[in-house]
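Lab manual, section 2.4: Encoding a predicted structure.

Procedure: take the sequence of the chain (36 residues), apply the prediction step described in section 2.3, and record the output as structure tokens. A sample record is shown.
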Amino acid sequence: MVIVELTAIVLLKRLLYLTKFYPGEFETLGYKFYNH
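Recorded output:
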């Protein structure tokens, strides 16, 4: 399960990184991800 958790953290960091450059495009995706 550790690998899954690490993968989730990496994907989360990538999402946050992308939102800095494309806030409007990834805003909805981030909202659904956090509230899923």
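Check your result against the sample. Residues 6 and 12 are 10 Å apart (CA to CA).
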